[in-house]
Design goal:
Helix content is 16%, strand content 22%. It has 161 residues and is of the alpha/beta class. The protein is globular and about 35 Å long.
């Protein structure tokens, strides 16, 4: 049997693509775009893999622009852009004074989402507790709820060493 060329009877069903599973995400029940809109627990620390499925879930318009701001201490190797099916996601480091463990997505049609990020390697029990606490997110919840990390000061927002 001769190998089939890609242009010969290759249907969409024959194409193999990989998509990350749906994001592990809990949103506040009455999304008011307040201090925190939810909690996100990525499966890995590679934004190129994680952001497309998160963006697809939070911004339903595939033609809408999305700008993501990430904690540079938590995501030191963050790319400036992430390619997603049908869109390009712009990624920027958060500035001084930003909340630690928070990612924001500025979506063209639905507005801004601020999510507490549970580190990918966090134990399932701790992550489940943080995901379940999403509806109770007063100001400063990121500082209070996030797991302590060695080398990162606690009690002050955005103080990264």
């Amino acid at each position: 049997m001769e190998p089939r060329r890609p242009t010969e009877s290759a249907s969409g069903a024959d194409a193999h693509t990989y998509r990350m599973p749906l994001p592990r995400l809990t949103l506040t029940p009455d999304v008011s775009h307040g201090p925190l809109d939810g909690v996100w627990w990525p499966r890995c620390a590679v934004l190129e893999l994680e952001l497309p499925s998160l963006a697809d879930l939070l911004e339903p318009d595939p033609d809408a622009a999305i700008r993501v701001t990430v904690d540079p201490v938590e995501w030191p190797d963050a790319p400036h852009t992430v390619m997603a099916p049908g869109r390009v996601i712009t990624v920027e480091p958060a500035g001084p004074g930003s909340e630690a463990h928070v990612i924001t997505l500025d979506c063209e049609t639905v507005g801004r989402w601020a999510l507490l990020v549970v580190p990918p390697g966090e134990q399932a029990g701790t992550a489940a507790r943080l995901l379940a606490a999403a509806p109770e997110n007063p100001p400063g919840a990121a500082r209070a709820a996030a797991p302590a990390e060695p080398g990162r000061p606690t009690g002050a927002t955005g103080e990264a060493t």
